[in-house]
Amino acid sequence: MTESAIIRITPEDSVGTTLRAVAVGETLSVGDATLIAAEAVPAGHKIALRSIRSGDPVIKFGFPIGTASSAISAGAHVHSHNLATALAGTQGYRYMPDPFPLTKRDQPQRNFEGYLRADGRAATRNEIWVLPTVGCVARTAEKIAASAHARHRGTVDGVYAFKHPFGCSQLGDDLGATRTVLAGLASNPNAAGVLIVGLGCESNQTSALLETIAPEIRRNIRVLGAQQAGDEVADGVALVDALVASASFARRTTIALDKLVIGVKCGGSDGYSGLTANPLVGRISDAVTDAGGTAILTEIPEIFGAEELLMRRAADEHVFDATVALVNSFKRYFIGHGEPVSENPSPGNIAGGITTLEEKSLGAVQKAGHARVTDVRLYGERVRHPGLTLLEAPGNDAVSSTALAAAGATLILFTTGRGTPLGFPVPTIKIASNSELAARKPGWIDFDAGSALTHGFNAATDALLDVVLATASGTPTAAERNDEREIALWKRGVTL
């Protein structure tokens, strides 16, 4: 029986992706042609659409995703046994910008009900955050937040602590990065007030941390020194009381989409991620940036092999040069630790059908849509311009999502093909790449991107944008309902 069980993304592709498990000998339709499966192919994996010689590039998304490590016959399963990465080390790039339209795409004005801060930034939540300077007082911060959260339920959107194990036994840039990320979190618009809990003797002194925070934001920050306090938990709760009293006056108001700052992230990707969830998120990125808002793309190792697509979209040569420096410095980070730059995908990615980093990257960059790259920021730095910002951070889910929040994202769109319960400081919308995951894990998933295959991308885009605006207006995500809120810091230096 002939049926549509394969997706071919571009006419140039030499492989397609199976929509379901395919049995050996099945006859399958590929556009106007048919293909006989030479092997059994799991759902979400690749099948050869034509014969591929050993050493030839394998094409998906219209670009090479590696080279054939052996001859591949039409209808064969294409995966780790016959496909290898072609990525190497650092490289030179030429500035060859793509032409951009002078006008943005027409779209209806969309708004959300958010909190407008005094400095003009918009928040999607009105919360109090408790940030420890050092791991020694992480549990103290949690105790303060738990007590204050119960005490002020309904007055603000919540009181939350974000623990971490660092802040001492660090040196130089490593300590500086910890301080910078904590300062970024303290500056996030979703934090109407922040209590910084210090120990007193740590390397990450509260005085130095405060100096990295803008004066207008410091007005909403209180500091507790645990070693000097009589009862540090009671004293901390009293300080939160004062922050809540000020934050309680905030009210949601109608805000245009140009004030929204979204972070885009993928984790536990599968063979469908680059076909459904990531392109859908790219459409949301376009809707936000076309309206004058901001999207942030991170996970720099997961653009290796697709970086030139972003470089062509650099707003100017300065942004192009910064992108080249960011990519090559991250490659040197791998090489300096004796690791190949292609040390990716993860075991879960491979089981889900992703074979090489090039394939993963070509799917991952689709979360950025088609917007101009207007800025490049280093780890811990905050966004400066509307449009698409590239942010330095690794692919690790918690580390990169924390960096997105520290950069100023007030909402994160997180795509996944395998599923994860993790949540982060700002509302995190979990988007399943396939309907099976969405049906199996409704407690984790907020949106089924598999619907794009059944109802079309336009309908799925409209539905996802509705979810984004509802979430920005206060509807809790699955992670928020499950009280999943974590941070993780990227430690790159020695430990004393």
TrEMBL record:
One Gene Ontology molecular-function label: lyase activity
Keyword vocabulary terms for this entry: Lyase
Keyword Transport recorded: no
One of the protein's GO biological processes: D-galacturonate catabolic process
Organism field: Sphingomonas cavernae
The protein's name: Altronate dehydratase
InterPro entries: GD_AH_C (IPR048332), GD_AH_second (IPR007392), SAF (IPR013974), SAF_UxaA/GarD (IPR044144), UxaA_altronate/galactarate_dh (IPR052172)
Keyword field contains Lyase: yes
Entry similarity comment: Belongs to the UxaA family.
Lineage per the UniProt record: Bacteria, Pseudomonadati, Pseudomonadota, Alphaproteobacteria, Sphingomonadales
Domain SAF: 13-84
